[in-house]
Input
Amino acid sequence: MKHKSLILLLIVLFACLGQIATDIYTPSLPAISIDLKTSIDLVQISMAIYMLGMSLSLLVYGPLVEIYGRRPPLLSGLSIMLFGSIICFIAPNIYVLILGRFIQGLGGGACSGIWRAIFRDTFRESELAKYSSYLTILVTFVIPAAPSVGGYLQHYIGWRAVFAFVILYASITLITIYFKLKETGTHHHIDKKRWSFISSTYKELFTSRIYMGTTASTFLTYGAFFTWFVTSPVLFIHLLGISPVAFGWLTFLMTAIAYAIGGWINARWVTHFGIAKMMRFGWATIIFSGVLLYLGYLFFGLNVWDVAIPSFIFFFATIFIWPNAFANAMHPFPQIAGYAGALYSVSQMGGAGVMGMIASKLPDENQLPLALVFIIAAIAAWIVFEIVVRPILPEQAD
Output
């Protein structure tokens, strides 16, 4: 138990880095636009390009962890993340910043994808959903704090301090993983470098209805999640005029409380109701949050609480999606957990990148586009799950 607890804490350390590198940056979007004399659209694109970098890199990390194990690719990715963060820190214009963000994403893919393989190596069967919920609860003390930290750094120092923080975090993580994390993989082998193995492995994943249907649903849901982080700084800071510090605290309180409550409920109910019912509840609640966001504007216009309350409900709902979708997709593939974890993250980060790009082009005058994204993405994800995954789910998961 002690060994598993240590690995869980190490996973929290490096798994959070990829998300923190995005979330800590959100309060600075308007300031970067002013300081670098560029449009807010380009600054929003710098967020999406990071997610696309992560998504593309995961196609490489998947085979690497099956060939060389978990540690070497993870350490390499952390080094790339550190290099990209330094480029962002010294960026003289938006185009260098976008380049740095892309390189950050190439490194951050290791943080995002490999933790799932390590998690699958360490925990078995029913432990996957249970400990995945505990992991969710733990990260509520780390990831939601990122916008708050970023808000203070932006307010008192400036946006470059945000990247200085990421440089420090990446350095500490790299050193800690090097000395404390032992290899968890037992199935990696140099023979898996053969193209025949790689192609057959991806074929197995791409032809699995449970895996592909679940990852497609995740693509849509996480895309809606990331859209909030692309559009919310414009809504709260630029249009509603709240400070970066206030925005950071608002985001922290919404996400931390929503994640903690949702994670606690999911950890206790999933074994009783099953994965599918919990995910359905999550999508239904996301649709409700989108409708509430839409009605709030129609009746009251644009104000802080008409955006914040539906956003809180949205964050609460997503906790019934992430751990259960992960357990559902990963459980059938213990022998190829590295590939499965990487491709799953490709779907998740790809959804963020694609929908983030779309969100940067949507009108920024009010919350209606965000409401429509919530509603449409949740309905589409639910439909995909019911048509592709539901008919072949094991009885205990339905």
In short: The two ends are 29 Å apart (CA to CA).
